[in-house]
């Protein structure tokens, strides 16, 4: 079901943790709430679940206001940070925990949910006989079993090894999709949010500052804070000027074209607190921040690693290769420019750069510019 959180506020003593947080998750979507530690993500999730009551605002699941209801009357499924399975119960009994005893179809539903998470036939095992990733998938099956309106996942991959995390992520996403679940995933890991979610809500200091598809948030962040939090960026002082109907952003890497458009077909759903970025436009009607024109003057340019092109010395701004990190499919090359500015470029893995090489650095494509 659709989840609509509107203007939710919450303080603990004198600490204002949620300052009017609003979030909309479309039915069947997996939305990631992405934000730094302490910004209020878990508190928001606990309010949706009913473990905390908000000081103000509304939480709707489908058409129903749930803010006054106890957790077990809300129709939410919860996947905690660590699977937290009951150690003395079999996998099947863990999955069936939220289903009424003796109800018809109980056994079939347990089997169905184990199948959804790729663990058909594991019902008789005990939790300690499963790997960490399998335990987390059982936790997802347990959350899905009572057919909740919304599934809430609180940093569910934190306890897993990095190598395991990617495959468990894929399996959990696939299970949620197979179940047609509406889900909210809380994470501070931008790669996890961008790669897993249909929609990303960026949270900062108790508010959702931007909601949109992963591609639109990366391409058109609403402000410099989001630009640097969601993805890597080299940030440099710059000046925006307009002449002959064409805007130019000038910085130490040359005269560049400011980004004006969004990503075709990947617009921001709600936009955010547009602060005069040229980049926050996706042209959709009713999108705050869309078609905002930054005023000419001083500001900041944010350059993505894949926008840098390394050429021969003399072509572009000269720099010295300091470090090459080879990842197989690509490489990250750290270059110090003559000014002392350090940039990190993503290049194809087979390009022959070595520490100590002199290169020319150029920037490709439109750039993000923020006033102020
Ligand atoms: N029950 C509580 N009593 C007092 N302060 C609390 C309580 N719960 C949370 N806080 C405070 O609220 C702030 C936000 O906490 P919350 O756990 O929601 O953040 P978070 O974004 O989920 O962080 P993390 O990623 O580190 O879990 C923190 O400063 C925390 O100390």
TrEMBL record:
Which stretches are tagged as biased composition: Gly residues? 264-277
Q: Which UniProt keywords apply?
A: ATP-binding, Nucleotide-binding, Transport
A GO cellular-component term linked to this record = ATP-binding cassette (ABC) transporter complex
Q: Give the region (Disordered) as residue ranges.
A: 262-285
By its UniProt entry, which SMART domains does this protein fall under? AAA
Q: Can you tell which superkingdom this protein's organism belongs to?
A: Bacteria
Which InterPro entries does the annotation name? AAA+_ATPase, ABC_SmlMolc_Importer, ABC_transporter-like_ATP-bd, ABC_transporter-like_CS, Mo/tungstate-bd_C_term_dom, P-loop_NTPase, Transp-assoc_OB_typ2
Q: Which GO terms describe its molecular function?
A: ABC-type quaternary ammonium compound transporting activity; ATP binding; ATP hydrolysis activity
Q: What class of enzyme is it?
A: translocase
Q: Which Pfam families match?
A: ABC_tran, TOBE_2
Q: Which residues form the ABC transporter domain?
A: 3-230
EC number from the UniProt entry: 7.6.2.9
- Keyword flag Oxidoreductase: no
What is the protein name stated in its UniProt record?
A: ABC-type quaternary amine transporter
Annotated organism of origin:
Planobispora rosea
């Amino acid at each position: 079901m659709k989840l609509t959180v509107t203007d939710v506020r919450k303080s603990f003593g004198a600490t204002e943790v949620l300052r009017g947080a609003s979030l909309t998750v479309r039915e069947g979507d997996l939305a990631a709430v992405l934000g730094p530690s302490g910004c209020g993500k878990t508190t928001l999730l606990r309010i949706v679940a009913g473990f905390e009551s908000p000081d103000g605002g509304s939480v709707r699941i489908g058409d129903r206001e749930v803010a006054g209801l106890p957790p077990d009357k809300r129709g939410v499924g919860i996947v905690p940070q660590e699977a937290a399975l009951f150690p003395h119960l079999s996998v099947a009994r863990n999955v069936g925990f939220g289903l009424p005893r003796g109800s018809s179809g109980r056994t079939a539903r347990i089997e169905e949910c184990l199948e959804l998470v790729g663990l058909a036939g594991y019902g008789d095992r005990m939790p300690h006989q499963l790997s960490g990733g399998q335990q987390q998938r059982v936790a997802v099956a347990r959350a899905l079993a009572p057919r909740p309106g919304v599934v809430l996942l609180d940093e569910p991959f934190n306890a897993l090894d990095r190598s395991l995390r990617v495959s468990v992520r894929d399996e959990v996403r696939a299970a949620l999709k197979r179940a047609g679940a509406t889900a909210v995933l809380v994470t501070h890991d931008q790669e996890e949010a961008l790669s897993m979610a249909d929609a990303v809500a960026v949270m900062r200091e108790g508010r959702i500052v931007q909601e949109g598809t992963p591609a639109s948030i990366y391409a058109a962040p609403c402000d410099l804070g989001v630009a640097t939090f969601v993805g890597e960026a080299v940030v440099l002082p710059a000046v925006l000027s307009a002449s002959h109907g064409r805007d130019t952003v000038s910085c130490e890497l040359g005269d560049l074209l400011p980004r004006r458009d969004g990503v075709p077909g990947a617009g921001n759903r709600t936009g955010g607190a547009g602060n005069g970025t040229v980049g926050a436009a996706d042209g959709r009607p009713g999108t705050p921040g869309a078609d905002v024109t930054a005023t000419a003057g001083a500001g900041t340019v944010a350059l993505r690693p894949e926008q840098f092109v390394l050429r021969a010395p003399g072509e572009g701004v000269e720099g010295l290769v300091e470090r090459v990190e080879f990842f197989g499919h690509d490489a990250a090359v750290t270059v110090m420019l003559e000014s002392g500015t350090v940039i990190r470029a993503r290049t194809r893995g087979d390009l022959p750069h070595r520490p100590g090489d002199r290169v020319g650095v150029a920037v490709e494509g439109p750039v993000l510019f923020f006033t102020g």
